[in-house]
Design brief:
Low-confidence stretches: 182-186
Distance between the termini: 123 Å
Shape: rod-shaped
Radius of gyration: 51 Å
Strand content: under 5%
Structural class: mainly alpha
Order of helices and strands: HHHHH
Mean pLDDT: 74
Number of strands: 0
């Protein structure tokens, strides 16, 4: 502190603190403009707090009316009776949370491996297998397969799938007889 005032004519005569401001230097009884600051307790809080506000007084003034506090600052942490309580949540919080959860689920689904492609199951696979086992030529198998694959023959395919082996062979023989094909291998 002395380094600040070296080389100046300041002697510290006017410097006062809260304990020396009420001491009379000129022996006059005129303390009209001075407040008694000795009734305030010493500041003991952390250094980061605001030192401009004084704590509440403990001066023996026990009145609890609201008019006695006019001009005095409220202690920290007390709420103003005229202020509305603050809203706890904004009206946008709930929709924002819903959007965020949707985005998270989309992100997780994009990061995850794609599901495997569904396997196409041919409901007539047993029919085609039985056709391959018949003792006929490859050209004859292709002819029967093309005929049974037509859209118009879906009912026939279903019936032949559930038919017995003997019925299936008889139908193939009749198919070639109707087409004027010679069926000699069966």
């Amino acid at each position: 502190m002395q380094e600040l005032f070296t080389g100046t004519s300041a002697d510290g005569f006017l410097a006062m603190d809260q304990h020396t401001c009420t001491i009379d230097f000129d022996d006059s009884d005129n303390d009209e403009g001075l407040y008694d600051l000795n009734c305030y307790p010493q500041y003991e809080g952390p250094l980061e707090e605001d030192s401009d506000t004084l704590p509440t007084t403990h001066c023996g003034d026990n009145s609890t009316s609201s008019t006695s506090r006019v001009g005095k600052k409220r202690p920290r942490g007390s709420k103003s009776p005229t202020k509305k309580p603050p809203r706890t949540k904004s009206r946008f919080v709930e929709p924002a949370e819903e959007i965020n959860s949707t985005l998270r689920s989309l992100q997780q689904s994009l990061v995850a491996a794609p599901p495997p492609m569904p396997q196409v199951v041919d409901p007539y696979a047993s029919l085609w297998k039985r056709l391959e086992e018949l003792p006929i030529t490859t050209d004859q198998r292709i002819t029967v397969g093309v005929h049974l694959s037509c859209k118009d023959n879906e009912g026939l395919r279903g019936w032949l799938c559930s038919a017995s082996e003997k019925t299936f062979e008889t139908w193939v023989c009749k198919f070639f007889a109707d087409k004027d094909h010679v069926y000699s291998n069966m």
